[in-house]
Amino acid sequence: MAVLLVTGGSRGIGAAVVTRAAAAGWAVCLTYRGDVDAAERVVAQARRAGVEARAVRADVAVEADVEAAFAAADAMGPLGGVVANAGVVVPKARVDAMAASRVAEMLAVNVVGAVVTCREAVRRLSTAHGGTGGSVVLVSSAASRLGSPGEYVDYAASKAAVDTLGLGLAREVADEGVRVNVVRPGIIDTDLHAAGGQPDRVARVGPSVPVGRAGTADEVAAAVVWLLGDEASYCTGSVLDVAGGR
Ligand code: NAP
């Protein structure tokens, strides 16, 4: 099986993607920014599925880090898939209180990081670059269509950029053997909310979701791994909401 690169694969949705992809037979190279222990736990779990796995420290906001992560994946074998998952939320704030520095730092991860990750993916997967094709999944957010008023409109806007990146790139490389799809999670039970200063967000907002609860990282991972694989061979430029009806 080919190699899958997952950015932000050490915790939350990315870790669940790594675990599911390994069970489906992908060799996995995951990236993380700081939590090496969490990354190594996910690597060990993937290896228990009988596949090769490794973790690479790489900040997706740093171009050279992304390039180094792809080089590490190349060393494992031919790349077949990429999941651009790494993303950050920002503390709750209205637009009239946002510092430019906060917005720029977030966009560097969520948007520039995703574009550079896609660039490196296409350079390897596209038949126009001598590749044999493959699949890219971008992890966006339901925030892109909800706007997150009073919470983090800037984050929501960054995810709208990810949606559009997926739509445009899918059409750009559709006849080069590369499928590109977007998954938009809703409220998912991960550490992300605490990192954004709202540790109670899942408990508070979950019951208001139409299905009555927050989702799990594994429920998102199931959609991602399906889109990566051959069963989704006619899906490209798709945006799949995994948001409990929200
Ligand atoms: P999470 O639990 O906070 O995990 C984030 C992961 O990304 C970790 O592996 C972290 O590594 C890594 N990471 C963070 N910043 C990074 C950077 N600059 N470079 C490389 N890796 C970085 O988050 P999550 O909830 O799984 O979110 C994953 C994706 O889903 C994000 O794009 C997020 O916007 C999106 N999403 C989440 C939800 C939700 O409700 N949770 C909803 C919609 C969309 P370290 O541990 O080393 O820091």
TrEMBL record:
Superkingdom of this protein's organism: Bacteria
SUPFAM superfamilies: NAD(P)-binding Rossmann-fold domains
Keywords: Oxidoreductase
One Pfam family of this chain: adh_short_C2
Record Gene3D superfamilies: NAD(P)-binding Rossmann-like Domain
UniProt cross-references to PANTHER family, sorted A to Z: OXIDOREDUCTASE, SHORT-CHAIN DEHYDROGENASE/REDUCTASE FAMILY (AFU_ORTHOLOGUE AFUA_5G02870), SHORT-CHAIN DEHYDROGENASE_REDUCTASE FAMILY PROTEIN
Family stated for the protein in its record: Belongs to the short-chain dehydrogenases/reductases (SDR) family.
Protein name, entry field: SDR family oxidoreductase
Source species: Actinomycetospora chlora
